[in-house]
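Structure first, sequence second, as always.
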């Protein structure tokens, strides 16, 4: 610590006004936030490996020269065991995603945008960062090769697999490892492989822009590795849908920097690296958790096993013995899947008719609206003229959807249709031949179907749709009538129609096929 203070004093011309040790992570490096008298901060780093520090300093300077979002190195001690870097603040992507992670992987729109922004930036450091980079400065080796793959697979074997006390055939497993290593290194790989690309190693500025840290273990290698490392991080619990979206975002961004293989080939190759990365992290969790007794790593083992369990369902890996052994691992009692207990209807379900809506178990018991469960649903559909105002809702619920038909072609502007309505065949033919009203109603149908279905499930009793146009005679009448008939035909529920300006009322009675499409 004293030598770090001396380095700061040499760089700043004075000793720091304040020093605070920052929380540690998985490495042996120690970080300190150091304040000047004016309140400006830098981060001081004390490492135990000169070669590792040298790699970080070299890579940071190279990336900064290419205008990549990384911390700048400000000063380095003569022995390279200490250095100062710019302070990127205290908010990591990992911290910013805490809400979604704590909700079991249910990430909100803002969190998903942070993830997409980060994953789109990854090819920038992988491809642009590799240009002009002297990989001989990388630590502990310059590139991803068979030896490094076998090292990590054996790390999994000795630090995790053997700790399970599961019996296995050493020679068969070793043969699988060699085949796996050959597959992973089969393609030319000229990218910068970050190696430890995870949410903890991404810092966010005030605008949510990502900055990358802790890349000192990087080397030349395939870009698939980092994508697998990030999206299959065990504790993140990303959903399949979110992973697919982020893989696509990465793939589209990658195309801006280099030629990419067809999507099918890309996904197949990615699957290989997801399996490899899963075994690699289990080795790390075994060592850091079982041997060093670090709680965070022990707690990360069950979600990593779940990742492995899901991978095995793909049944696309050409390593029969390894796959069989991994299946046995996932079936060990200590890694048994924890099933959610069947919730009672009062605690987790809402029943309406034959349809069941299941709540998320982390949301706790539901409370219900006074309108829930009474049913059956009655839908009211109105046509009206905007000149005379929007119809009142007699149910007392405050109204429902109001659709403006005035953006579609108006038959009322033409003499043959002035005395007709949207119920008359000539007007219907005019509107449907023109086609604008059909496109308009396609969107209305999708929205209405979802809403009607949900109201039936919840046992609500009233839903209202209103269509307005200039005179409440042609377009609004056509739209209201067709939506009413569509809902009645699809759901079999009672629908009441009122063409207010025309003084026409109609009731479509509930049929025996009630709620057939819910």
């Amino acid at each position: 610590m004293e030598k770090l203070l001396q380095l700061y004093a040499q760089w700043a011309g004075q000793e720091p006004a304040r020093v605070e040790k920052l929380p540690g992570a998985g490495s042996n490096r120690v970080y300190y936030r150091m304040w000047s008298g004016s309140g400006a901060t830098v981060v001081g780093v004390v490492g135990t490996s000169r070669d590792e520090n040298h790699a970080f300093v070299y890579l940071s300077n190279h990336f900064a020269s290419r205008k990549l979002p990384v911390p700048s190195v400000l000063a380095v001690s003569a022995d390279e065991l200490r250095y100062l870097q710019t302070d990127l603040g205290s908010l990591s992507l990992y911290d910013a995603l805490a809400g979604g992670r704590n909700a079991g992987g249910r990430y909100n729109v803002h969190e998903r945008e942070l993830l997409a922004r980060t994953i789109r930036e990854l090819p920038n450091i992988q491809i642009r960062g590799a240009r002009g980079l002297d990989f001989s400065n990388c630590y502990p080796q310059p590139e991803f090769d068979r030896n490094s793959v076998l090292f990590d697979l054996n790390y999994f074997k000795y630090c995790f697999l053997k700790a399970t006390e599961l019996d296995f055939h050493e020679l068969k497993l070793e043969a699988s490892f060699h085949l796996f290593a050959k597959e992973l290194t089969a393609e030319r790989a000229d990218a910068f492989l970050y190696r430890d690309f995870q949410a903890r190693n991404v810092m966010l500025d005030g605008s949510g822009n990502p900055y990358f840290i802790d890349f000192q273990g990087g080397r030349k290698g395939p870009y698939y590795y980092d994508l697998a490392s990030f999206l299959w991080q065990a504790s993140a619990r990303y959903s399949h849908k979110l992973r697919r979206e982020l893989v696509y975002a990465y793939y589209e961004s990658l195309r801006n920097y280099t030629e990419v293989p067809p999507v099918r080939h890309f996904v197949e190759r990615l699957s290989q690296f997801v399996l490899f990365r899963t075994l690699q992290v289990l080795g790390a969790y075994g060592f850091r958790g079982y041997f060093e007794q670090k709680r965070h790593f022990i707690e990360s083992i069950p979600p990593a096993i779940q990742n492995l369990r899901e991978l095995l369902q793909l049944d696309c890996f050409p390593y029969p013995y390894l796959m069989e052994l991994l299946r046995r691992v996932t079936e060990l009692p200590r890694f048994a899947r924890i099933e959610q207990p069947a919730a009672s209807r009062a605690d987790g379900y809402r029943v309406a008719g034959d349809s069941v809506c299941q709540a998320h178990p982390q949301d706790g018991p539901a409370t219900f609206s006074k309108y829930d469960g009474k049913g059956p649903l009655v839908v009211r559909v109105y046509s009206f003229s905007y000149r005379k105002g929007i119809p009142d809702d007699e149910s007392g619920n405050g109204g429902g959807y109001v659709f403006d038909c005035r953006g579609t072609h108006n038959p009322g502007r033409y003499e043959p249709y002035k005395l007709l309505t949207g119920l008359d065949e000539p007007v219907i033919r005019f509107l449907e031949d023109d086609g604008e009203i059909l496109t308009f109603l396609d969107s209305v149908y999708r929205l209405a179907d979802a809403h009607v279905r949900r109201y039936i499930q919840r046992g609500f009793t009233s839903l209202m749709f209103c269509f307005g146009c200039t005179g409440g005679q042609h377009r609004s009448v056509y739209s209201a009538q067709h939506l009413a008939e569509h809902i009645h035909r699809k759901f079999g529920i009672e629908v009441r129609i009122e063409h207010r300006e025309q003084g026409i009322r109609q009731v479509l009675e509930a049929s025996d096929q009630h709620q057939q499409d819910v």
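Margin note: Confidence is low (pLDDT under 50) at residues 338-357.
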